[in-house]
Fold each of these.
Amino acid sequence: MKAIVLASGGLDSTVTAAVAKRDGHDLSFLTISYGQRHCIEVERAGEVARMFGIVNHLVLALDLRAIGGSALTSNHPVPKDRSEADRQGEIPSTYVPARNTIFLSLAIAYAETMDASLVYLGANVVDYSGYPDCRPEFLRAFEEVVRLGTRSGVEGKGIEIRAPLLSFSKAEIIRLGASLNVPFHLTHSCYDPSMSGVACGRCDSCRIRREGFQAAGLTDPIAYAEAGT
């Protein structure tokens, strides 16, 4: 069965790709270069694609900096050294307006042209930073949009959206990835890396990743500029 994987180059999307590969699907990758400050993840997505032997890897350029509204697509500072309690509060400034809505729309369009019946993404609702477009109710609603608003849906073929890591903790995701030989050393999670691509160690994404590896009892193979507080 043909499947599109939204591949960001991050840990969750790479484990998701490994799950889709394990399940025997014919995979194509879609990576969105949207003007994010951590654009090194696009490069890492390419490295992951090559490691997985992906023949079809489409990289789409999309300038969300023209819209702004996020610390990831503007010069606003990325929050650092936030505790788990802080992360459970209001939606952080790293939220990119409608990002998953936009990305899933592009993935569905790609799926229609590739005659794929599945779209995989690495959304997670447990260890996440409060993003509303990572919730299961959003994904269910989007599937209904696909059913009503695409040729595939109207013709009854349908395109299923799968988020296999949705209810996993970060530690569970990492353990699953380890069991599937995921190349964690190629993945990038940091929101505010150095010019050379070294992870800051202090943003929400770095902290969640580091805490996940610690809870999983495994060593994170990437380097960090700082340990954080």
Amino acid sequence: MKAVVLLSGGLDSTTTLALAKREGFDLFALTFDYGQRHRIELDKAQYIAKHFGASDHQIVKIDLRQFGGSALTDSIDVPTHRDEQEMASEIPVTYVPARNTIFLSFCLAYAEVKGANDIFIGVNAVDYSGYPDCRPEFIRAFETLANLATKAGVEGKSRLKIHTPLIQLTKAEIIQKGLELGVDFGMTHSCYNPIEGGISCGVCDSCQLRLKGFQQAGVDDPIKYKIP
């Protein structure tokens, strides 16, 4: 059994990779260098893919800075020091337009070439930053599209399944599940705006959600922060 796993180098995608491995899948990891300001996650993804024994790890370069429109791919400040109410009030400027649609399209192509019927993505609809492409209805719609858009789906030889094992879990529950699977979260990176050396800022939305998760899980976060 082969599975393509979308691997960013973050906490959620690493836990997802570990879950796919536990389920017995042969892992084919896919990472994107899309012009993100937090490029250290690419190094983390390489290390994580190797650590979990992925059969293949592809890093695909797509320059979404050509379009901009996001604090991750444009000269827009990353929001900091926001409380949960502020985070939930609107789709934040860290949203990268159509990112998961683009990423899953590449996953689909990679899966078809490798003969994989399963794609794993670590999207979450509970403790997240309000991105529209992390919702269950988006995933269901894309899975329908995937089975209409591929040779295998049209010929009826196989049906592609998109797995979202974390979609209804809190960040604390994801961390607990990862620890049960033996994930070393010191390998991962979550910060949108790291300082030199890849040290996490501690105050962007992603850092705050991560820190809250570790606090609620009752364990220490093993990575370094500029502002704890």
